[in-house]
Each structure stands twice: as C-alpha cells, then as structure tokens.
C-alpha cells in the first residue's frame, strides 16, 4: 500500500530536518506506477472515491504532511518552506510556477553550474508555503501544466520529468540551546559562510529574481543560527520501447528525448560507480539539474516501479539493470549541514 511505501521513505524527512539534503526519485517503464507512487491518483482518468483518497495518497503529499508535522513539533525553531516545480520536456527545462509575458504558465529556464560547482537554475520561482494544503495546491496547479499524451501502453502517459524542490530554512534562537558557547562558535561559522546581502526590498531568504533561496545573513543581535537544506522529489518520465508504445510523430520525438535523458542518467550512475574522472552530468538537462543530488552529498533514494505483466519482461529487466547500477554507486558519505535542531543534540 502507499502507506507502507511511505514507511520506507519517511525517515528521510527526519534527515532533512537533521541537516541533510535529500532526493527521492521514481524510475520505471511507462505505465508502471511512478506517478502513482509519487503523487497518488493524479488525473481525471484515474478517479478515486473520497474515502480512498487518503489511503491512496503518494509520497509527495505524504512528505508535505510529514514535513509540517515535524516542524510543528519544535515551536522554538522558525522555519521557512519554499517550493519550486519544474518539468523537463524534450530536454528543455520549464518553470511551472511562473507565466511568460503572454500569461502562459511554464517559462523556459536554463541550468547552470555555479563557481562552487553546484547546479542552479537562475530566475527559477520559489513560492513560500505554510501548510501541506498550500504545498499541494501548488503541486496540483503545476500538474495541470505537465505534458501528457496517450500511448498504446499508457493512456495517460507523462511526457516529461517532474522535479519538485523544497528548500527548508530553519532559524534557531541561541537561547534554545543549552550550550551557548558552542552556539556562538556556530554563529561565527555561519557568518563566515553566508556573505550574501539582502536588500530592504527583498524578503529575507527569498530572491524574487529567482536563483536559489539565499540563506538569510545573520544579524548577531538577532541571536539566531540558520540551517538550509533541500528536498528533491522526482517523478521521471517512463522509459519506453518504441515498438510497444506504438508512437509516431510528436510523441515519437518525445519518446526519443525521454529515452536519451534516461540513458544519460544511467551513464552518470555508471561513471560514478566506476569512479571515472569525468562524470557526464551535462549530457542532459535532467542530469545537470540533479547533479548535486546524484553525485553530491545528498541522501538519494531511487525507487523502481516494475510491471507485473509477463509481456513487459524485457522492460522490467531493463529497469532492474538500472537499479543494480544505481546500487553500485558509492559516493561520499551524505553531509550534514550544521547542528541538529531538535535541541537534544548538537
Ligand atoms: N500501486 C498501484 N495501485 C493501484 N494503481 C496503480 C498502482 N500503480 C499504478 N497504478 C495505476 O496504473 C496506471 C499507471 O500508473 P502511473 O500513471 O503512475 O504510471 P507511470 O509509471 O507514471 O507512467 P508514465 O511514465 O507513462 O507517466 C494509473 O492508472 C495508476 O493509477
């Protein structure tokens, strides 16, 4: 059940609050249940009765609920949750939370590598959310924009990769810590590592002209320390055998982009598992965007969705091959950002 699946994922939300970056992605052939796993029933062709709606919820709504539940458990911590939603369609990245000049949602953006070697999307929209309901309102609005087309295998097939990024900023007042001295030392460290300045017109921690939310510069008189972590939730488009899905024209072109980007993802995992000097992140927008989560110090969970049908044996074996490759990747230990915020340990 969806509840049991989330049981395997839930601890990663605690990790997020403990200071780790986290990425959860679903991989599998078209129609195997990736969007169902991430979102739950998500389209009009997939109706669900109100009594089933709660139990059928996927990882994204459950993660939103769990995140706000964990935050409410510690009222001494000021938290800020910002969300961005992008889709990668035909190897182009679209910001699903903003409109262009003609009022059409889904503006094209670029992925860049910063001087520090991190991937970033300049001008990307981040919206502040204050409850699971607000969070899901944004997701549902974005889903209406996501490109879908019917194929012989799946009548409601997603033709793009969906990447939801949650940026969590936690500010902790010093007096909530027993050990003032070590807190002051930490404040010094944070002051040294967050040189950005925020102008008066900008909302603290939020950059209206996109770029990632910037850490709020600390005012020593405010007596707070700050931690910023990132959760990425990725619903990949389905890998697909062109013969089986019977696609032609525009949809065939989409399929070819989907398969190429998934092959690029597999290549990156292969290069990482073989400890190659060059990792080909930039071969696709998908791997470039997810570079820090796949090859960096985030906690990364890849979920495989496979069909129970015998006729999809070849696709199932292909997905399991991808999973084996992902498992062989040994990266640096996930890195924790600063202190625990539970107040119990530092
Ligand atoms: N575990 C499940 N329980 C019940 N229904 C499921 C389950 N997994 C998938 N389904 C159903 O199967 C259909 C296809 O699932 P879904 O849309 O999640 O596939 P997908 O892998 O995201 O496909 P694509 O890559 O083509 O977008 C949907 O109608 C969905 O509700």
UniProtKB/TrEMBL annotation:
GO molecular function, one term: microtubule motor activity
Keyword Cytoplasm: yes
Superkingdom per UniProt: Eukaryota
Compartment annotation: Cytoplasm, Cytoskeleton
GO CC terms in record: microtubule
Family named by the database record: Belongs to the TRAFAC class myosin-kinesin ATPase superfamily. Kinesin family.
Sequence segments annotated as region (Disordered): 34-53
Entries under Pfam families matching the protein: Kinesin
InterPro entries linked to this entry: Kinesin-like_fam, Kinesin_motor_CS, Kinesin_motor_dom, Kinesin_motor_dom_sf, P-loop_NTPase
Assigned keywords, A-Z: ATP-binding, Cytoplasm, Cytoskeleton, Microtubule, Motor protein, Nucleotide-binding
Domain Kinesin motor intervals: 1-329
Database matches in Gene3D superfamilies: Kinesin motor domain (3.40.850.10)
GO biological process: establishment of spindle orientation; microtubule-based movement; negative regulation of autophagy; negative regulation of mitotic centrosome separation; nucleus localization
Name by which UniProt lists this protein: Kinesin-like protein
Sequence positions that bind ATP: 28-35
